[in-house]
């Protein structure tokens, strides 16, 4: 039966790694960007973090991936602080795709994706068959096998983003954090990337945390949504409960109408501006 | 209400084909690198043979071989083991050091201009060396030590000034050019204050010359190479990851700051050791990495090929400077004549492309 709501179920054998923050304070200089924030990321689910520009959502993600050290509080991975755990050990469980990664000049797809294998190698244990297979799997999952010997700079934005995701996948982590993976992509590639992440979540039980701007795609693809205002959590839960006119007003400072997405039956936000309103609103 | 069928899956996963093609791509890259290394070694052997046979006392190849085997006359034994071989090996080690140092910095800072001879580390060594020769009257190993100190000092200054909660290659290069000018000013100041004879000694050292190469001087250089070269090759893998930028490097589990510091210290030490031994032989560090990358088609720092290119450039330039020109020239003059046009080419090209990397 088509048309039924596609409900993501965490894979039954989902490996569980618990990522949470406790009273986390992150700051650039003296200015706290994330302030006393405690969240738990649900295992084997897709969590989307939304909020206005400068609300601290990217900083939160960077803090969780230990790119920013906390002023106070902690990021706990299975109960241990990620900032105190050996970095390679964390990297075998937790991967991050930053916002606009820059590829070295002239690098091929295979070479770039292969660099995601770093945490699985040691000073003397170098490249092996397991690495070949992990890279091949990452290419296959992201549909980039055909591009294996192409150079990154010769590819389109959508293809590049797939390759970067492939690199994060080659790292073979159970947790994957992505900072605005759809921001510079056109509509079809945005859907493409989000579908890909959903496949990963369904097939491998990968816990995924995404920061993104498009509230409507966020509420369609998220199992769990965290809305942030001024470095704190404004609301969290299933999108159907989180995305309301009241919340959109609080988070983005605009009036809106929330309707049902006809495709996914998730909330869709139709913003109200000062112009182009058919009926005057009271 | 309209029902919507999920869109068809657009990508078909074929992991078996994938693993084979991944292996294929990697094997092709490896075999090209191996071929390039073999080619460079052959060229190096030819240049080395030329360096040992040519000269005021030409040694035919058969005589050279028997001398190397320990069956030469007293004269040829002295010429080979006392004069030409130390000179050849000094050139070789120095070239390896410069090549590795240059490619380490260029990769670390993601900028082809970021070689130690452009960003002031070589001039730091020059200032230290000249200071030792002219003000302190030091000679030999003490001068080398002072050059090492000068290089480390200027690197520390550049690192401290360029640091802004992170390291940007562009900023590092700009600060480096500034420090380079400062160190050059120190050198010039010292030279103008010196007596003619002292200035002459300092100038020979400053041009970068293998004329002073001797077995006694070779030992510390060889020892330094023995320590620094393997360490640099070990840091090579961290360089591959650092190329992706600090965020990705951290997220794949590299401790960025210690790794970068290690790479900088090794790069500085390599350049300093080589400069201390023979003076700042210009442009070797600068061209070795890009040439090696072009040859191997690699996107990462091709460390071993870069070391071989560096060695080849120094040895071949010395052969050219000594024997193939109407007047004998120090090796630094020849390398500069080759390297400077390349610098201009790079500047023109990077301006057109709008990027430095």
Question: How would you characterize this protein structure?
Answer:
The complex is a heterodimer of chains A (282) and B (357). Chain A is built from 9 helices and 13 strands. Chain A has 282 residues and is α/β, with parallel strands linked by helices. In chain A, strands 7-8-9-4-10-11 form a 6-stranded mixed β-sheet, with helices on both faces. In chain A, strands 1, 2, 3, 5 and 6 form a 5-stranded antiparallel β-sheet that branches. Chain A has a two-stranded antiparallel sheet with strand order 12-13. In chain A, helix 4 (129-141) packs antiparallel against helix 5 (157-170). Chain A is globular. Chain B is an all-alpha fold. Chain B is 76% helix and 0% strand. Chain B has helices at residues 15-53, 61-68, 74-108, 121-134, 141-162, 169-193, 196-207, 215-242, 246-251, 256-278, 284-296, 303-324, 331-353. Mean pLDDT of chain B is 85; it is low at 353-357. Chains A and B meet through helix 2, strand 7, helix 3 and helix 4 of A and helix 1, helix 8 and helix 9 of B.
